[in-house]
Design brief:
The protein is mostly beta strands. It has a domain of about 120 residues: Immunoglobulin-like (Sandwich), CATH 2.60.40. The chain is built from 1 helix and 11 strands. The strands form 3 sheets. The chain has a 5-stranded mixed sheet, with no helix packed on it. The longest helix has 18 residues. It starts with a helix and ends in a 21-residue tail after the last strand. About 5% of the residues have low confidence.
């Protein structure tokens, strides 16, 4: 009788295992401009820019290091309203820099409290204060704290002419 049960148990186990398909491995590393589908969100990093200060005139705000501005879009592809988490960037040495919660002087700031309805897309800028260099944007899946999974978007170091401030030429003594 035990022999009859074990082949049936084996057949049942094989049937159950055949129904369990391994999830395809998803890409964890992306480039700017690529769609990052993680958790209920689809992220796209559209643009990056470095600034030494934000604002104008008396409303100028300086950075401890440099400001990294990222223009992103986030689409809620889930079936219910969801909060878009704050993001962080990771340097080549593994140092993390958290997204700043103060967007003073930043146009089109995405904000801190950001929720998206199903199929809604939020677009705007997020802000970091970090030393000049290449980074990876760490994008969480929105899971429970301590159990989150991440994908990374490579943010290369690129400067445009408005990012670089050339020193003024030194005035030498007047010649006669």
């Amino acid at each position: 009788m035990k022999l009859l049960r074990s082949p049936k148990l084996l057949a049942l186990s094989l049937l159950l295992l055949a129904g369990c398909e391994q999830q395809p491995r998803t890409n964890l590393s992306y480039e700017m401009g690529e769609r990052v589908e993680i958790g209920p969100f689809v992220y796209v990093v559209v643009e990056s820019a470095w600034r030494s200060e934000l604002g104008e005139g008396f409303q100028t705000r300086g950075a401890k290091n440099r400001f990294l501005l990222l223009t992103i879009s986030v689409t809620n592809s889930g079936g219910s309203e969801a909060s878009v988490p704050m993001l962080s960037i990771e340097g080549s040495s593994g140092q993390l820099y958290q997204e700043l919660s103060d967007g003073t002087g930043l146009t089109n700031w995405l904000g801190v409290l950001r929720t998206a309805k199903p199929a809604e897309t939020l677009q705007g800028r997020i802000l970091f204060d970090a030393p000049l260099g290449p980074y990876r944007l760490r994008v969480p899946d929105g899971g429970e704290t301590g159990y989150e999974k991440y994908s990374w978007v490579t943010i290369p170091l690129s400067l445009d002419s408005s990012d670089v401030q050339a020193p003024l030429p030194q005035q030498g003594p007047a010649r006669r």
